[in-house]
UniProtKB/TrEMBL annotation:
Keywords: Glycosidase, Hydrolase, Signal
InterPro entries hit by this protein: Beta_hexosaminidase_sua/sub, GH, Glyco_hydro_20_cat, Hex-like_dom2, HEX_bac_N
One GO process term, biological-process aspect: ganglioside catabolic process
Residue ranges of every copy of the Glycoside hydrolase family 20 catalytic domain listed in the record: 185-524
Residue intervals of the Beta-hexosaminidase bacterial type N-terminal domain: 50-181
The protein, known as: N-acetyl-beta-glucosaminidase
Gene Ontology CC terms, in alphabetical order: lysosome; membrane
Pfam families in UniProt: Glyco_hydro_20 (PF00728), Glyco_hydro_20b (PF02838)
Low complexity bias locations: 453-471
Source species: Acetobacter ascendens
Family: Belongs to the glycosyl hydrolase 20 family.
Region (Disordered): 452-478
Amino acid sequence: MITGFSIRTGLRVLAAGCAIGVLAGLGAHLAPAKADTAPPAAFNAPQPPVIMPAPSTLQTDGSAFALPAKWQVIWQSPPTPLLSRATQRFANRMSVVAGQAVSVESAEKDKDTFPLHIQYAHEASFPAPTMREDYTLDVKPDGITLTAQGPAGVLHGLASIVQLVRREAAGPVMAQAHIEDSPRFAWRGLMLDVSRHFMSIPTIQRQLDAMEMVKLNVLHLHLSDGAAFRVESRHYPRLQKISSHGQYYTQAEIRNLVQYAAERGIRIVPEFDTPGHSFAMLLAYPQYASVLPMNTTDRAEINRAALDPTNPATYSFVRGLYAEMSALFPDPVFHIGGDEVVAKQWTLTPRIAHYMQAHHFATPADLQASFTNRVAQMLKADGKTVMGWDEVLAASVPPHTIIESWRGPANTAKAAEAGLPVVISGPYYLDRLLPASAYYETDPLDIRKDAAEAQAAAQTTGPGGTITPPTDTKPEAPIPPLTKQQKTLILGAEGALWTEVVDEDMLDARLWPRMAAVAERFWSIPQNCVPQTLYGRLAVTQDKLNLLGLKSQEDADALLDRLAAGETQAPHVLLSAVSPIRNYAHNHEFLQIRHKQTATEQDLNTPSDIASPDSFEAEKFNAEAIAFVNGKVVLKPELERQLTIWADNDAAFNQVAARHAALTPALAASARLAALARAGLAALGAERTPGWREQARQTLDAARKEIAASSSIHVVTNTPQPAGDLIQRIVPGVDALVAHEGTLTLLP
C-alpha cells in the first residue's frame, strides 16, 4: 500500500518553527540540595488514589475499604439505554481491575448490596459539543453517590470510581474520597490518521475505550489524504476500489463505530481533505485534478496533488462526496483539511492562472478562500460547521469556522482575533516521538512559540557539560497574550498522531501512555498539572489501561519476538533505557524528500520502531540518581543494581544480535548504554579504572550529542543521526552521579 511521508507532518512543523525539544524528565532538579532544602522524591508509586486526569477537587484521608462484590445502582433519574449499558461496562471494568467478579444491578436498594446512587440531568442531544460534563462523587464504606449535570458526567464519574480501586495483599480495596470535577476545555481530542496506515475497527474501538477512561471526548479521524481514502462511497465507488488499497471502512462499520464512540461520550469528527492532500481522491477521479497527467511515480507528489477549484465539476464532486460522508457522521463538525496546498499546482497551470487573473484572485490563498466558502455553504446546508487547519486563515473564511491551530500560537492568536473558535494541536503532535513530559510541560494557552523547546537543553546541558545543538532559526517577535474574550474562543486541544511510521501493531504503544498525560493537560486546571509527579501517576494509569484492554506492552513484546524469536531478554533490557530519535528524524522518507532524494517506503521492523518515547525504568533511575546526589544514600544499592544490569547487558545483546540480524542496527546504542552504566558505577565507587572521569565525560558528551541531533525539526533536517535511530534516556542520572561524585551532602 502507499503510505508516503506527509509534508504536513514534517515541513508543517518546520514552517511553524514550534519544535518541542528534548526533556530530561526530572533533570531540572540536578542541582545539589542546600542544607535547608529537602531532596526531590525518588520515582516511587504515588500515594493512592491516583486519578488521571487530576480532578478539580479531590479530598481523601488515604483510607480505603474492602471492595464489595455485589453492587446495586439506584437511579435517582431514570437511566437511558446508553447509561444502562455504561453500568454493565463499569461492572466489567471493576471486575478486571479488582481481579475478582463484581456484579452491578439496577434495582431498589437491597441490604446485602453496596449502593451506588446516580442522579443526572437529561440532555436532548448526546454526545454534543455543548454536553455538560461536571460530576461530584462521594465514596464511603456505606455507599457511593454520583451526581452529574448530564450523561457525560455519569460516564466520567464511573471512570473515576474504577480508578479508585487498587489491589492489596488482602484483596481489592476502594479509596474513600470526595471529588468535585469539571473539565477545563470542552474539546479534548485525539486526531488519528488512518489514511497512511489503516487501523482496523477493533483497534480503533480499543482506543475509544481508553479515551473514555481518561475523559477524552473527541476522536478526530483523518480519513483521506494522499496515501488513501478509507470510507466506502456508494456515489463514487472508485474511491474504495482504487484509492483504499483494499483497506477501508464500510458504511455499516462507520455507523457502528460512531455508535460505539457515542456510548462512551465521544464524538467522532471526520476529516476528508480538500483542496490539497487529495492525491487518493484524484487517483480515482483524475478529471478533477489541477495538474494532468498526475505524477504517480514520485512519492512526494502524493502529498502535493490538489483539486482544481476552477472546474465547476469539482464542486459537484465535492458536494456529492461531502453530503454522503456527512450522513455517516452525525456530529455537527466536519473537517475539510485545507492545509498545505502547494501553490504551483495552481499558479503553474495556465488555465488556473488565467482564471485567477480573470476573477481577480491575487494569490492562491484567495482562490482557496473562494473554494472554502463554497464548500462551507454546501456543508451548512447539511447542518455542518466547517473545521479546517489554520492555513485557511490566509484569506477570509465563513464566520464560525473552527480553526485547528498547528503552526504555533501566532495562528491561534490570529484566529481568536478574527473571532473564530480554535482547537489547538500543534504542541501535541505525538508522532514527533517526544516523551510524555515534553508534551505535559506545554499548556494549551501558552503563547510562547517555543515554550516546550526550552526543555531541549535538559539532556544536552547538565552539571557535567554542555552540548549546543545546531540551529538555523531566528527569534520572532513576541506574541501578545490572549485577551479574556479571546480565551473564551479556545474550545480545547487535540493530541495528534500521524502514521507515516506507525502501523496497527505499533498504535497502542505510540499513543499510550503519552495520550493520558495530554488528556490531563486538557482536562485539569494548570495548578493540578504537576510535572514532578507525572511519571509515577502515569505508570499506575498505564497499568490499569493495559489491564482494561490496551495492547501497548503486548504488541511491543510481539514485535520484539519477531526480531529475536525466543531471545528477547537482552533486547528488552536495552529498550528499557533508550528511545527513538525525535522530531521526525525517524521518518526517513521525510528526510529523503527534504534532501531531494528518491523517497522510499520505510519498513517498520527495527528496534527503534519498538522503543518507547517514555521509559519508566529510565525515569525511575534518573529520579533516584538525583535524589542520591542530594544525599539520599540509601538508594545506592538500587542504583548499583540497575547500572550493573545495563552494563552487563551489552555482551548478551551482542550474542543475540549475532544470531538475529534485525538487531544489528542497535549494537551502537547497546554499547553506549553499557558505557554510560559503567560511568555511573565508577561514580558510585565501583569498577574504577585510571582516567575514568575523563572517559565518563566523553561518554556523556557523545550521548548528549546524539540527543541534540534530533532536538528540533530544524536540527534534524541537517544533522546526522545516531546509529539505529536510538538515543539514551539515562543521561540525566549518570550525569548527576559523575558531576557530583565526591561532593555529596549525605542525609541521615
